[in-house]
Amino acid sequence: MYLIRPLVAAVALALAFSANAAKPKPAPAAKPAAAPVAPAELELVHNLGLLGEERLQAFVDHFNKDHNGSIKLVRTTKDGKPAGLNLVRHYDMDDVLSKPGNFIPLHQMMGKAGQSVNAADLSADLKAGVVDAKGRLVALPLVYSTPVLFYNKNAFRRAKLDPEQPPKTWLEMQGVLDKLQDAGYSCPYTSSWPVWVHIDNVSAVSGVPAMTDKGQLTFNGLPQVKHIAMMATWQKAGYFKSFGRRDEASARFNEGECAMITTDSREHTDFREAKGVELGVAPLPYHDDVYGGRQSTLADGASLWVGAGRSAAEYKEAAKFVSYLLTPEMQIEMVRSYGQLPLTAPARAAVGSKLLQDGDKTLQVANASLNGNGAKPAVRAANIDAVRIIIDEELEAVWGNKKPAKAALDAAVTRGNAVLTAKPALKKAQPF
């Protein structure tokens, strides 16, 4: 009897334990879902004009929407510190670019973000100043062009000139300008970016570079003096009109006021809707009395630089944006939108196809003008702000009939070399 009670108690306890064990355990409380991590906001500064800014904004918006990006487009300010990404023409940031601590090489940033960019995949003509001694990309040469001659075919017809036969040499051009003036054009010819076109590129086409490999200015030789002296006589005769140091002249051509202009090839996209202008394009004229004949023009423009001191998340976002820009679809669209020289093989192939041609031969003319030598030399006079200002001052003295060509170019070389001696870092194409 006494033995039964403990046994019953034990069985009851066992049954109670078994019943409790059979009950399902309550599910653990669900953890709240992790909030999606917002991408690091990254500024992309630029110094493009209003139209270029509008086009770039479209690319940024597309990236942000389709790739969960957070790129913010900002206009650059003079002497401003670099942002995470900087799309700038070299001459607007030469002092900043001369300081290595401001930037990190593009290849380094891409590598840390687990992405790659191969310099060998990009056009050799566009690598001036954006590759290091080992051939690695330190910046992306994104919106590049080379000087060409644009002309209004309607103006040629009005002057009884063959619209399919633009002048090949500067000597031929003088006869064309005379006929355009007789036909009523008060501005037969103008030029944007005078230092880039008439110093760096006229020198290059003549086979006498404006700067040595060591960064000494040498554009006061006989070919350059003869060219600027010719331009001075055109100014006096009313054949040539100067409107400013940058692209002010482009608006005069776009409005139909000027019949011909030498400027960057990428501007053909801006001239498509020009009033009363049927656009013609030809290589930059050359001087046929220079030994060695016509040489190549140079390529330059806006390149993408990576600012130093950013977080790993910001660099990851930057690398993602660079990879996006280098996709075949975006490269072709950028060429179509900006008129830039094609950077990658798919974009170069598209230039010869109906995809980008549309009856416009500008890119074919521009690529032929480079002839594979658009990146030599790496340093250009027009890309050094202080030097370019000096040259512009001296050229304006020539256009104003205040100095002869030789005295002005001699003074520009002397003054410019003094600046480069005082600030040798400016001689470097890039800071690394």
TrEMBL record:
InterPro entries, A to Z: Bact_solute-bd_prot1, SBP
Keywords: Signal, Transport
Any one GO cellular component localisation term in the record: periplasmic space
Cellular compartment(s): Periplasm
Secretion signal span: 1-21
Stored SUPFAM superfamilies: Periplasmic binding protein-like II
Subunit field text: The complex is composed of two ATP-binding proteins (UgpC), two transmembrane proteins (UgpA and UgpE) and a solute-binding protein (UgpB).
Family listed: Belongs to the bacterial solute-binding protein 1 family.
Record-given protein name: sn-glycerol-3-phosphate-binding periplasmic protein UgpB
Organism listed in the record: Dechloromonas denitrificans
